[in-house]
């Protein structure tokens, strides 16, 4: 074969091979850019502003000591006076009730087992009367349910019933006191000491902060919470007994227990409900060392009314509120928005802060979860999902083919 023909064939083969190589390279490039992961766009975020509320001034009386808290809120909201442990008079009966109901539980409206009163209980009545303690009548042979006996102890504040119940549940007052002291320790009520079942002894003492916690425990017990809210109760044999708490029904008060001795003065552990928006706030407070119950009740009324405005429902965010934006390198845009509204019940000047976080996104559909909006309200945490508003779609083969640098940089 002539050398010229051989050279032509080689040139043609090289051309074909070169063309094939170009086709292969272009095909590989096209395939690679077609399936390459798109670069993710980081969100540019706007953080929510901290919310501030004015501090609440409470109307405390000029005498005694006290504290006030609320169910669902740790500790106390405010206090007044020395906060030392002082005699608590018949508020002691709430400890007796809680300890007894832990040993002998009752459902909310359950009557419970029967107690038969004996000559020994009649003698207890006369012993307490001789000590100038508060009493309710007893008759040897009469039978009351456990709930009725508790009503006899708590509504008219009968010291003799507190002793009878302790004897019934624990065998003796001394056995009860041993269990009750362990109960106080178990519940972290280190500022409280008890020397009897009724509070007639001045050695039965507590701090306002402990009493607020005791009040919260009372409200957690459905049977006890219902009893302390009763204005009257009708008991077999002895008839109607009346609650010594004359604040029931006033200023939202629905419990809990009065107390009066020379050492303690006029005392009241109280609970009160009111609404803020669609939420119910339950206050638990105590005032100790009042001069009379009339003046004490007036002081508590003013205190409750001064506390109520301190609870506010604060809007944290609205559904659709924007908190950031995405801008893809191929020119599409999306917004980071709150998925739902959120609000919080805020007490006084409790700080409210929020942080928005969002992940980087390559492609995404409208409504996709992209992050969260996390609020801190005091010790409470509230989280709201953040979602994508808009669509970040694949830019298509044209953009992919002409932007290899962006695609390779995202790998």
TrEMBL record:
Listed InterPro entries: Beta-lactam/transpept-like, Peptidase_S11, Peptidase_S11_N
Keywords for the protein's UniProt record, in alphabetical order: Carboxypeptidase, Cell shape, Cell wall biogenesis/degradation, Hydrolase, Peptidoglycan synthesis, Protease, Signal
Domain Peptidase S11 D-alanyl-D-alanine carboxypeptidase A N-terminal: 76-273
GO molecular function annotations of the record: carboxypeptidase activity
Classification of source organism: Bacteria, Bacillati, Actinomycetota, Actinomycetes, Micrococcales
Coiled coil segments of this chain: none
Organism name: Cryobacterium breve
Family from the record: Belongs to the peptidase S11 family.
Protein's name according to its UniProt entry: D-alanyl-D-alanine carboxypeptidase
Superkingdom of the organism of origin: Bacteria
UniProt cross-references to Pfam families, sorted A to Z: Peptidase_S11
Keyword Flavoprotein included in the entry's annotation: no
